[in-house]
Amino acid sequence: MEDLLKNLPKNAKDKHKQNKKFFAKLKKKPPKQLDVLMQDLHEEEFAKDYCLDCANCCKTTGPLFTDKDINRISKFLRMKPANFIATYLRIDEDQDYVLQQVPCAFLAEDNRCLIYEVRPKACAEFPHTDRKKFHQISNLTLKNVAICPAAYAIVEAMKEKIKV
Ligand code: SF4
Ligand code: SF4
User: Fold this and answer.
1) Cβ distance 115 to 72 under 8 Å?
2) Position 112 confidence tier, pLDDT thresholds 50, 70, 90
3) Residue 106 Cβ < 6 Å to ligand 1
């Protein structure tokens, strides 16, 4: 896993042009079965169950925290939302609440999430590869393949399976 993560940014960079072209074509004519295919590819990749060896999303990037996330997590931690915000969050350039720092303060040493049951929606959905109309988030995916080895593998599998 260490080597995989070390090489991931370069591998993603090497594939960037090809991926960009692929998604541009996919957007023009998405296959009818795209949602079903993405669900299968996502399940197949995540069945390998390597997130606990990886945690690269929690270490290098962070989620957005919605108001609902903040209220739910504060309650779980028995903190007042304002106190939770002051302790862990900041507002970014898009006016969204994000982590003050990475790795995430809720990431344990064994890569478990200390607030897993109530984690932000964005964490639960990352890297969004089982999302419906996946071709609509291609810009985000082009970035995520450099962070997430599962997203990288899924995009590689997509290019094998979908002839655009
Ligand atoms: S809240 Fe949990 S899942 Fe989300 S970034 Fe932090 S440690 Fe990772
Ligand atoms: S979602 Fe991706 S980046 Fe995050 S832990 Fe799993 S494989 Fe790693």
Assistant:
1) no
2) very high
3) yes
